[in-house]
Amino acid sequence: MKIVCIGRNYADHAKELGNQVPTEPLFFFKPESAILHRDHPFAIPEWTKDCHHEVEVVVRLERAAKWVSPEHASRCYATIGLGIDFTARDVQAELKAAGKPWEKAKAFDGAAVVSPEFMPLTELGGNVQDLSFSLLRNGQEVQSGHTGDMLFGVNELIAHVSRYSTWKTGDLLFTGTPAGVGQVQSGDHLEGHLGGRVMFSVNVV
Ligand code: ZN
After folding, report:
1. What value does the mean pLDDT take over residues 42-52?
2. Please, are residues 143 and 194 in contact by the beta-carbon 8 Å criterion?
3. pLDDT at res. 70
4. 3-203 CATH fold
5. What is the pLDDT of residues 72-125, one digit of tens each?
6. How far is the CA of 5 from the centre of ligand 1 (A)?
7. What is the 3-state secondary structure of the chain?
8. Is pLDDT above 90 for 22?
9. How far is Cα 194 from Cα 79, in angstroms, rounded to an integer?
10. Could you tell me the distance, in angstroms and rounded to a whole number, from the CA of residue 122 to the centre of ligand 1?
11. Domain ranges, ordered by start, for the chain
12. 7: CA distance to ligand 1 center in Å?
């Protein structure tokens, strides 16, 4: 399986990093080895001094899809999870400035938190563009978002990516982060909420 992540899909987050709002979805991959093992703490890599949390709604693909239209993309998923796209922001900034790919800053071991459970979309109200989610750091809300604020909706994202890369069953789509990204530190506790439910709980070491 693969993880497809969307960059700059919330205007307020694109602006907080000084980026232009994109005119088409921006995507990149994380490998399966980036998934943080269940119940393991997240260990900040020793080669970064500025590791950021990015809380994101995660969609799991239930079927393969190639060249799917936005109209048909909703048939490709039925459950929704929540995750963190951990990002070594200092390393990413260096790579961006040099015009190089971001993988080193995004694809490292443990860089993808995926909630152990995925909720049936029907139990979350049925509208993937009407979901509220948030991240608490040490009990304080640091990020909150609403999927209605996405620049490109989930169906559009699935369709766009499928023009370039075939979706396989079990693939995960990280749909982008809202504003409020920030540095994590050893000793932090991160808790992700989706539709009023606690979806994951991660200790940082
Ligand atoms: Zn992200």
Report:
1. 98
2. no
3. 97
4. Fumarylacetoacetate hydrolase; domain 2 (3.90.850)
5. 999 999 999 999 999 999 999 999 999 999 999 999 999 999 999 999 999 999
6. 6
7. CCEEEEECCEHHHHHHCCCCCCCCCEEEEECHHHECCCCCCECCCCCCCCEEECEEEEEEECCCECCCCHHHHHHHEEEEEEEEECEEHHHHHHHHHCCCCCHHHHCCCCCEEECCCCEEHHHHCCCCCCCEEEEEECCEEEEEEEHHHECCCHHHHHHHHHCCCCECCCCEEECCCCCCCEECCCCCEEEEEECCEEEEEEEEC
8. no
9. 12
10. 25
11. 3-203
12. 6
Distance 13 CA to ligand 1 centre (A): 10
Pairing of strands 55-61, 172-174: antiparallel
pLDDT score at 19: 84
Predicted local confidence at residue 78, as pLDDT? 98
58 C-alpha vs ligand 1 centroid, how far in Å?
A: 11
Query: What is this structure's pTM?
Result: 0.97
Write the pLDDT tens digit of every residue in 151-199.
999 999 999 999 999 999 999 999 999 999 999 999 999 999 999 999 9
